[in-house]
Amino acid sequence: MSHKLYVVGLGPGAPQYLTAQARLALEEAQILCGYTVYVALVSGLFPEKECYTTPMGQELDRCRWALERAAGGKTVALVCSGDAGVYGMAGPVLQLAPEWPQVEVAVVPGVTAALSGGALLGAPIGHDFCVISLSDLLTPWEVIEKRLRCGAEGDFPLCLYNPASHNRRDVLRRACDILLAAGADPQTLCGYVRNIGRPGEETALLSLAQLREAELDMVTTVFIGCSTTLAAGGRMITPRGYERKGL
Amino acid sequence: MSHKLYVVGLGPGAPQYLTAQARLALEEAQILCGYTVYVALVSGLFPEKECYTTPMGQELDRCRWALERAAGGKTVALVCSGDAGVYGMAGPVLQLAPEWPQVEVAVVPGVTAALSGGALLGAPIGHDFCVISLSDLLTPWEVIEKRLRCGAEGDFPLCLYNPASHNRRDVLRRACDILLAAGADPQTLCGYVRNIGRPGEETALLSLAQLREAELDMVTTVFIGCSTTLAAGGRMITPRGYERKGL
Q1: Which residues, in sequence order, are CB contacts of B207 under 8 Å at separation 6+?
Q2: In angstroms, what CA-CA distances link A48 with A32, A72, B136, B215?
Q3: For residues B5 and B106, is the Cβ–Cβ distance under 8 A?
Q4: Which residues from B are below 8 Å from A128, CB to CB?
Q5: Do A91 and B126 touch (CB under 8 A)?
């Protein structure tokens, strides 16, 4: 019996973003489980496999279920969109795993939205960067606010996840106001990507002042440039510093 | 004629980390080019293809060469380790590309070391995080210092790239001292991964005080936890906050 639990990052959705390692883990698994929407992204590739899906908000139940089935001798793949670690299920699974000591957990990384969205915009995080989620479901807003402020003070390009939800329509505006109050230029180049790797994919470049007025939804990833970020040929680029070498 | 230039993130090395999209781009390309070490990672998969390699430090020549060949009608893949955007060649290529308007540049993302190394340690960047390179070849040290300080003040987990080089043996120690001076606890959980996805792969968990004394090399990626980072079952985890839901 295998007792193996893979926590698999799928990338943003389309099978083209799967790594070879992720594909192998899904092939090897006897059971696929995860949030309904994410399992649907890959279950079509493996129509014969047992699937177990739970809705948003039942993450811990899902992790326990996966550990339980792996402890029972099945090879299980718990799927996450993007990377398995970044806001993914690797953390809670590994926190719970010591209760099932016979289960071997393997984390399979994937292309998180900072990378897949960044590639569609150009190279917005081509130098040091921060990733911050604007969701306050699990994080006190004061922590989010402090991190936004420190990100702006450090002149990092920022990648923002979860810029909106049904209950928090003004969260992106509040985030922009924090950055502006911390000294960010209203003309700072920003960009966003909707539906990365899925039908309806779209990108846009705009200023921080314009971003403050934008009405974005929860399937959008936002990029806020730093003082050196520029546009060239319609792409958003944060240079690494090759100007020093004559660029 | 195609005039297509793919800037391709290979992931950390082994073919298992290639995405399907990256593999397709490499297959479609007539010419593979890049830093000698990175081309060697994939040229074995495509022994019949023309390869053009340049040593470290000649990044801009490489980008111009790739654009020139694509302008001449070839399909070219410029390969990068990790992601194509994060400290990769997507930035300089896109900055130069307007000089060759007939060339269509496509950025193909890959699994950067923050993700692949993180997966091997557990989930060290399971919440908001910063990525910072300690290389001062292209970045003034004062900028690196400011970002380390702001990262610590924001209580972000940090992923540090390039923690050493032949000429900068003490850079990791200096970085640790900045974090400690900014208030980081010497007992903060840290980890590192050497040779991700390559022969000689190794991981370690240690405290920030111990990390300060460690002698690491340039093929190592370092993770520095934040105030909530913990160890469970030998893994390094930064919780997202499911404690609020009963974890």
Answers
A1: B186, B187, B188, B189, B190
A2: 11, 20, 52, 50
A3: yes
A4: 130-133, 139, 144, 147
A5: yes
Cα A73 from chain centre: 31
Number of residues in chain B: 247
**Which of B91, B96, B241 lies at the smallest CB-CB distance from A123?**
B91
Residues A136-147 pLDDT 10s? 988 999 999 999
pLDDT (tens digit per residue) in A72-121: 999 999 999 999 999 999 999 999 999 999 999 999 999 999 999 999 99
Quote the Cα angle for B100-B101-B102, to 5°: 95
- Which residues are CB-neighbours of A156 under 8 A, at least 6 positions away? A128, A129, A130, A226, B130, B147, B150
What is the torsional sign of CA A238, A243, A244, B3? positive
Residues near B188 by beta carbon (within 8 Å), at least 6 away in sequence: B179, B207, B208, B224, B225, B226, B227, B229
Q: What is the DSSP letter of B19?
A: B
User: In degrees to the nearest 10, what's the CA dihedral of B162, B166, B171, B173?
Assistant: 110
A37 touches chain B (CB under 8 A): no
- ipTM, 2 dp: 0.96
